[in-house]
Specification:
Layout lengths: L1 E6 L4 H14 L5 E6 L4 H7 L5 E4 L2 E5 L4 H9 L1
Length: about 80
């Protein structure tokens, strides 16, 4: 399973989301890709007001503020 975390610099919620995903990786097997939305204008336009955003296998499953239980369920499905 591939998890993508859309993030940007100087984003406290993004840092929290990364820590949450790292914790969940200890219990659930998945790979994480980090995408800086500021590196691509189309990605920025889509996510700028909602980071952090988490996608699982290309499907968006969570956005700020992240709910740990909901994210765990999405990763376990």
């Amino acid at each position: 399973m591939k998890v993508t975390l859309f993030t940007k610099d100087d984003c406290g919620l993004c840092k929290e989301a990364e820590r949450l995903l790292r914790r969940l990786q200890k219990k659930i097997r998945f790979d994480v890709e980090f995408v800086d939305i500021e590196a691509d204008s189309a990605v920025f336009d889509r996510y700028w007001a909602r980071v952090p955003v988490v996608a699982v296998d290309g499907k968006e499953v969570a956005a700020a503020p992240l709910d740990e239980h909901r994210l765990r369920v999405a990763l376990s499905a």
